[in-house]
Amino acid sequence: MQATAGDIELRGSGAFQDVRSGRGADLEMRFDGPEVARLLHYFGLPDLSRGAFDFRLDLDAQGPLTRLALDGDLGSLEARAEGELDRLFRPTQGRLSGAVTGPDLEALGRTLGVPGLAAQAYELKADADFEPGFVRIQALSLASGEDRLSVTGVLGTGAALAGSDLEFSLAMQQAARLGAV
To answer: Phi/psi at 146 (nearest 5 deg)?
Structure first.
């Protein structure tokens, strides 16, 4: 598959064993262009980033697990992830680690419907293992300026997140900002 809109190009090839669950995915996708802000504007999203973008996603089914490698240079926002999952949607086996860095946490918050975040650079890191009924969060952190939120523990994936046991750590220079969130 290949699609072009002006100087923006999407290229991909591959197949899924089961599209609904994402099981057995063998896929290679590339998406690039000279200015990510134009693309964000087209989809009605805040200016999360500016500059040229080159997004790559590779999925490689190897036995019961699919290896995932994501390398997303989206202008000034960068996303990286790697791991192995039994399926892409609601995995029950595997591991995943990744990081996202960007120039504007406030714009990211607006995109996700979370108001009141500081308009400063941020870094989000995650490292998790998937098991039937649980996600073991080895490390999940969001840092922006001098502020940092960290989460570790077990997140239940069933009804009402039963079986969850999470530990939160928060360090802030200006705790009054919590009222805005």
So the answer is: -95, 0
Residue 61: is it exposed, middle or buried by C-beta count within 10 angstroms (0-12/13-18/19+)? middle
Q: Order of strands, edge to edge, in the sheet holding 65-74?
A: 2-5, 8-15, 26-33, 53-62, 65-74, 77-85, 94-102, 122-131, 134-144, 147-156, 165-171
Gap between the Cα atoms of 125 and 60, Å rounded: 23
Cα 108 to Cα 22: distance, rounded to the nearest angstrom: 26
List per-residue pLDDT tens for the chain, 181 residues long: 899 888 889 999 998 888 887 778 889 999 999 999 888 888 888 888 899 999 999 999 878 899 999 999 989 999 999 999 998 888 999 999 999 999 999 988 888 888 888 889 999 999 999 999 999 999 999 999 888 999 999 999 989 999 999 999 999 876 555 555 5
Residue indicated by tokens 């419907």: 113
pTM (two decimals): 0.84
